[in-house]
UniProtKB/TrEMBL annotation:
Protein name per Swiss-Prot or TrEMBL: Steroid sulfatase
Cofactor(s) the record lists: Ca(2+)
Family: Belongs to the sulfatase family.
Organism this protein belongs to: Bos mutus grunniens
PROSITE patterns: SULFATASE_1, SULFATASE_2
Gene, per the UniProt record: STS
Residues annotated as transmembrane: 182-205, 217-239
Signal peptide boundaries: 1-23
Gene3D superfamilies reported in the protein's UniProt record: 3.30.1120.10, Alkaline Phosphatase, subunit A (3.40.720.10), Helix hairpin bin (1.10.287.550)
Amino acid sequence: MPQKGRDMMTLLLLLLFLCEAQSWVASKPNFVLLMADDLGIGDPGCYGNKTLRTPNIDRLARGGVKLTQHLAASPLCTPSRAAFMTGRYPVRSGMASQSQVGVFLFSASSGGLPPSEITFAKLLKDQGYSTALIGKWHLGISCHDPGDFCHHPTSHGFDYFHGLPLTNMRDCKLGEGSVFTAAFRLLVLLPMQLIAVALLTLVVLKWLGLFRAPPCAFLFLFLLATLLLGLLLGFLHYFRPLNCFLMRNRDITQQPMSYDNLTQRLTADAAHFLRRNAETPFLLVLSFLHMHTALFSSKDFAGKSQHGSYGDAAEEMDWSVGQILDVLDELKLANNTLVYFSSDQGAHVEEVTVKGEVQGGSNGIYKGGKANNWEGGIRVPGIVRWPGVIQAGLEIDEPTSNMDIFPTVAKLMGSPLPQDRVIDGRDLMPLLRVRTRRSGHEFLFHYCNSYLNAVRWHPPNSTSVWKAFFFTPKFSPEGANGCFDTHVCFCYGQYVTYHDPPLLFEISRDPRERNPLTPTSEPRFWEILEAMQEAAARHARTLQDVPNQLSLGNLMWKPWLQLCCSSLGLSCQCDREDQDGRQSP
């Protein structure tokens, strides 16, 4: 073949290769998943808030689809995030508690998302995606020793992790109180009072000559009081560095965590990840520490909102959303990137300081909030944008779930769903692209920890959405919109009211859940309940016994699992973070 012919053939092959490469990239959309913590559906402007400024979340909604009946699979952080990652009800993976404590409170717990679970990050990584999680994890770290990292993000499909492996909480920020106040009262203050009464009684009896206690009794009670006080002071001193730290991949970078420019640092790292992977398919999960207490914001946002420290933090989070959207525009990646924004559950309405400052968000018109399955606890913002693929400005009121992200991602990249397990989520794309007007969910099951709390039914060929409660939390004080006496609502025993027959609402007509139906007000009352109870029974038959990751044994602090960036006992002090928000490559 002449040289000219060979050159032409080489050029054609090169063009063919480039076209195929371009087609491959175009067929593999990028994913940016933005997850807020405890953000209420009534907080963003696009969901009706007139005074909290969220221009970037609103921009995202204008450019995509706003879901108005988007539901968290659980009203608590740990189980909701497990469901989000796996597309499965958390009870299937053992990530639903059978006790009052429904989330991980210690970094050195042995429970967590089991290694056998498949996350959407694993699916994408297997398809050649670069994957990163920046921000909050809250799904465990290690199983048996501090080096196994069996529950860590890098063991669940994420190439890169930078953030908080546990969760933000009041104890992480000096002067913001403690989530353990009730436990302190029960385990320390009450015994101290009993010891004081015992000592006083012994002294009085001795003075009256009625009883002469041996000196060792006084010594024993004094030592017991000293021990309890020492344990309390030790806990207060060491909890923050041992549990509130930042990691980059499997290395601790800041212990204890500093809130100085924290949002800016994590946002800058997320932007850096996008720029570093602009030429390859990527998954970025930006999991905000906002709006969970302790609330925080940088000097650029502190004191600027109309809603105190909560509003300041919300507006800083919105700024971060805007930074990510701007980078996608700058890199000309917006048209090939599916962006999803949501919250892991509703706002925590019981978050009120001793000074009366409300530090929980707004759930709009909906009843209840975090830790219960009234609509305010599970109906969350849900926004999906993909320019050119999803119609901009669309609003959809069909029941959808945060579990739906898993099958949606799988379908978009052409990966079959795992056949060895039940996937409870449904592909969102037919609904988002208006190929169908119906949600893929006829039934949704609402769990309070591991207990089936309520069933939602959207019958075929009907606009009705029914919701039946098997039990409801006892709000306290009476007439309140939450469990203020216990700070969160619990799921069983004296803290709930059981309903037989179940409490039935037509959510499509009564979204505030104010008017429970009766056989008199709804002629099909028994027929509707029978269908929902049969669905619950069918669902129960699909469940298998699995190890409880949130058992007392898995929740408790285990010293041998404790991560520490120094070898000086439990001092655990280090800072390898860049405070300005600039991250190393």
